[in-house]
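In this section we walk through a basic example: taking a raw amino acid sequence and producing a predicted 3D structure, encoded as discrete structure tokens. The instruction is simple. Fold the sequence below.
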Amino acid sequence: MGITMLKHTFLHIPGIGPATERELWSQGFACWEDYLSKGEQCTLSPALRYRLTEHLEESVQALSASHARHFELRLPAGEMWRLYREFGQRVAFLDIETTGLYPGVDAITVIGLFDGQSTKAFIRGINLAEFNKEIKQYSLIVTFNGKRFDLPFIRRALGPLPEYQAHIDLLYPLRKLGYRGGLKSIEVQLGLEREGALKEADGFLAVLLWAEYQRGNKAALDTLVRYNLEDVVNLQYLADVAYNEALTRLPINIDPLPLHPKYKVDTPFDPELIHYLRRITAAIL
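The resulting token sequence is shown next.
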């Protein structure tokens, strides 16, 4: 695999911005080990050289302890993609559905999780509390717009997340790469397609599906879970793309990730129910 992007990163050190990071690379300090072994050759100021040594030694310790959060606290949101390969073996792709937009007022209905191998759904009134145990297995969480939406809801409803975990909100690195719009729009821009009527589903429809389930329609819950898990598994492809495209913009040579094929979700869904609820929505709006 070679040296991962994280070990080529100096942006998490106070006083180091993009220009200084590139200057370090140009001086031959391509990674942490380069600087720690021959930092005396660096032409930066003595104060900055001392800070580099101090913080890189902390970084080595944090990485050895798999403390991904150490780096999240120090990196800009648009640069969080740099953690993806280093911590990608213990990653949870995450998305939630709710009854509305406001934590503390509205409730989580479904939390979908994909670990790169299989999907899991945590459902209000069935197994939502099991999420707390499951999430402790991961060093990294990947969401889209989770910083403003998913994680505040989860923390309000289920308590704090593990302190060693980092969070990549793909909204920010993808926006930096020029991708605009919501998750569904960016999926289309990247050539991802959803099956049949699932193309018509959105967050508002997810609220209606939960209400329909509450009225006793089991197919509505299956459809809601399927919609949610489609969001979750697509996050892996988006993370792969964000990582690889961001690499191409740097003046150093790092191997890209192989793009994961889309994981096939086999949870059944009711296309007629989606069409029906879409017609209701159109009539209301």
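Looking at the output, two observations stand out. Residues 218-247 form the longest helix (30 residues). The chain has two domains: 5-65, 83-284. In the next section we compare this with other chains.
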